């Protein structure tokens, strides 16, 4: 697996580079048909929050899950760019004073600190809607049904029963709407963080028009990876270094969040990550050696330092 690990690192960097270039093109000042104008302040804000940073793990998952089925890389990158727009919009809104009230993101001032709340809200709205413009494009797949399935799955991962629903459960658990509400950490994770990561995995199966068995394998893998990612995030908030994280450490504790660490303890959380890696590896067995890069991705997620 040493070769797969090295291959993973190279492919992750390449996808990040390709995603950066694609997002820069998608967020250029060039008007699309039916657009009237692209206001400079809005475009500058959208570019500030989506270019020049991030590991691009979510686009990577789309590209690599697609590669298992021989899907053209360009199609995977487009779907990955749509997913990254959703992710970046969520970070902008998550950082707002009404949400987590964060000052730093990726080692830089958060967008509302760089500009103002209204610009940040609208930049997030712009990225959200651009995502659905991208994911419906004809060049992703000749079959309109495939594009429809990709779009519907992205909406559900992003919305009420996914990320947005998870965000309001998180705030309720902090006591934002009165008394603190009990938090089911596993369900919260599946929605707020895990839903978009899972989408990165099942998108490849949709693009590749996989069998039900192959779809289920990537679904299981995506769920395990998503939970491992969140536990690693919770551990970093306790044990991580702010400089490496690019944001303040200890934010969860300051907000009184219920996390996997508060429920399982540090050692229990680490053991849970170990178990999830085994589950992810087992899910990928149907793909044989074709799943090696995705296996390495799960280990990267579990062992990351930022």
UniProtKB/TrEMBL annotation:
Pfam families: polyprenyl_synt. CDD domains: Trans_IPPS_HT (cd00685). Keywords: Isoprene biosynthesis, Magnesium, Metal-binding, Transferase. GO terms for cellular component: cytoplasm. GO terms for molecular function: metal ion binding; prenyltransferase activity. Its cofactor is Mg(2+). InterPro entries: Isoprenoid_synthase_dom_sf, Polyprenyl_synt, Polyprenyl_synt_CS, Prenyl_diphosphate_synthase. One of its GO terms (biological process) is terpenoid biosynthetic process. Belongs to the FPP/GGPP synthase family. This is Probable farnesyl diphosphate synthase. It comes from Bradyrhizobium jicamae. The lineage of its organism: Bacteria, Pseudomonadati, Pseudomonadota, Alphaproteobacteria, Hyphomicrobiales.
């Amino acid at each position: 697996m040493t070769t797969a690990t090295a291959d993973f690192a190279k492919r992750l960097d390449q996808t990040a580079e390709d995603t950066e270039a694609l997002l820069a093109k998608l967020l250029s000042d060039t008007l699309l048909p039916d657009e009237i104008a692209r206001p400079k302040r809005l475009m500058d804000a959208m570019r500030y929050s989506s270019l020049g940073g991030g590991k691009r793990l979510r686009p990577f998952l789309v590209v690599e899950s697609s590669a298992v089925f021989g899907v053209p890389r360009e199609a995977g990158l487009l779907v990955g760019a749509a997913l990254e727009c959703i992710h970046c919009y969520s970070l902008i809104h998550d950082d707002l004073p009404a949400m987590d009230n964060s000052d730093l993101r990726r080692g830089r001032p958060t967008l509302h600190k760089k500009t103002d709340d209204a610009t940040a809200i609208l930049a997030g709205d712009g990225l959200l809607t651009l995502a659905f413009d991208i994911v419906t494009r004809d060049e992703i797949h000749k079959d309109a049904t495939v594009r429809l399935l990709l779009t519907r799955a992205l909406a559900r991962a992003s919305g009420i029963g996914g990320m947005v629903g998870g965000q309001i459960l998180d705030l309720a658990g902090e006591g934002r709407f009165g008394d603190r509400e009990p938090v089911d950490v596993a369900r919260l994770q599946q929605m707020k963080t895990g839903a978009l990561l899972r989408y990165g995995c099942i998108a490849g199966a949709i693009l590749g028009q996989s069998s039900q068995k192959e779809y289920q394998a990537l679904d299981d893998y995506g769920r395990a990876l998503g939970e491992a990612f969140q536990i690693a995030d919770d551990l970093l908030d306790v044990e991580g270094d702010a400089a490496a994280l690019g944001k303040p450490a200890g934010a969860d504790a300051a907000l009184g969040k219920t996390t996997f660490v508060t429920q399982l303890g540090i050692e229990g959380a680490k053991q849970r990550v170990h178990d999830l890696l085994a589950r992810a590896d087992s899910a990928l067995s149907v793909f044989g050696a074709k799943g090696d890069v995705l296996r390495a991705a799960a280990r990267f997620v579990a062992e990351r330092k930022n």
